[in-house]
Amino acid sequence: GPTPQVAKGTHVLVPLGEASPTGWRAEPEEAWPEGAGPAGGHTQWVELRAPPDAPIGRYRLSVKTRTDRGEFGAPFEPQNDLVLLFNPWCPEDSVYFFLTSDLSEYVLFFFGRIFYGTEDFFFERSWNYGQ
């Protein structure tokens, strides 16, 4: 939202190589992803891990570095936004599915049916989930 707050878990500070108090982790990557690498500058790839109970939504990602020469905060760039959804394969997530058949039906299908209307007067129609 427009006013992220640390207390609500919507503003997260994650120190490199340590867990934040909310369970987020940022670990330096040892190897470059295939096809990537330094292009004339200093680059560090970082793996970011969210805890299973992190609020879902869009996160604006920014990086702050500190050296002997001072501190630098990279500006927010929309292409670096992180969209956090849910993980029905993770037992610690509240949306975890115990049955593989449920995962197939509710998560992995591209098409399905949705129901709309009121409790007593409802309709159904086909839906492309676009996953």
From TrEMBL:
Residues 18-45 are annotated as: Disordered. The keyword Endoplasmic reticulum does not apply. SUPFAM superfamilies: E set domains (SSF81296). It comes from the Eukaryota. Keywords: Transferase. InterPro entries: Ig-like_fold, Ig_E-set, Transglutaminase, Transglutaminase-like_sf, Transglutaminase_N. Gene3D superfamilies: Immunoglobulins (2.60.40.10), Transglutaminase-like (3.90.260.10). This is TGM1 glutamyltransferase. The lineage of its organism: Eukaryota, Metazoa, Chordata, Craniata, Vertebrata.
